[in-house]
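Consortium newsletter contribution from the modelling node. Members have asked for a concrete example of what our holo predictions look like. Here is one, prepared for the beta-D-galactofuranose complex that several groups have been discussing at recent meetings.
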Amino acid sequence: MSIKKFMKKGVALALAVMLLGTAVGCGSSSTTTSEAPASTEQTTQEAKTEEAPAAPVDEKIVIGFSQIGAESGWRTAETESIKKTCEEDPMIELKFSDAQQKQENQIKAIRTFIAQGVDAIALAPVVESGWETVFTEAKDAGIPIILLDRMAAVDESLYTTFIGSDFIEEGRRAAQYVIDTFGPDAEVNIVELQGTVGASAATDRQKGFADAIKDYSGYKIIKSQSGDFTRAKGKEVMEAFLKSDGDKIDVLYAHNDDMALGAVQAIEEYGLQPGKDIIIVGVDGVKDAFQAIADGKYNCTVECNPNLGPQLVQAVKDLKAGKTLEKWIKSDEDVYFGQKAIDALPTRTY
Ligand code: GZL
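And here is the predicted structure:
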């Protein structure tokens, strides 16, 4: 049931309760004032029976969630967080759709959710563009859209809130690790594995990193290409980088750990030592990156929190309760390298 319909039903019920309550209230005010107060429990019980029945508690909140796919460990962790949070909450029903990395599948899923009259639509938009029409359809149907972990390039009026990270800051943090490692006056050749072309996580991580190194003339990005956020593609693209620039490469900056971990394999097969001959910085904070740091094959991971289930469910409940949400519900994150990463490894959840 959409929130709009629920609100109408709720209003009708409230009116009924008021009319009923008034009728009962008129009768009861004479009886309750005349009777000696019973025990608290009994009074409470009497008070309850005099009130109209509460709204039915079995009204589940239905969330339609269009997930991008399962391209990385981070993505899988996000899916698990959302499914687990919903499964554990008796007030929530989750309708889940896996788009297999295709925007057209996400658009189809959104239209299905609209037809089903869900209370809210959650979407991790695979790319930023192409959402205007279907978001307008959801708005016309009175169904709020909650963006998860990536942004959509639409007017703010077409979505309720964005729950996710500051990707520009993540890119900046990755660059800061490199600057702290080599020093501001060093000559540093960097190769960059970009995420999915058109995804806000890729666009902004690239921007944040580039902005942070622009004042250091010795820092040069000598190659930059998309590895589509996957290990396989990250390995393939790194093989090409090594073929063209092998011994010139000082640093690999990857928009996610999965691509960087694929690149670690390529670097080893090429005959260099990942983490030593080539310094490696990724984003996400997946457990395998922490393990690679502990193994001396990786240097730094900038955390990006995928555990958005609790924030999503809370946001939908707040919406249903008529609350106004912040336009951006930002995730708190950290940067891990060296002994700090090794110490955190046993506690990592994804
Ligand atoms: C970030 C998310 C990105 C991750 C990747 O919020 O969109 O997509 O960094 C994932 O691992 O593929």
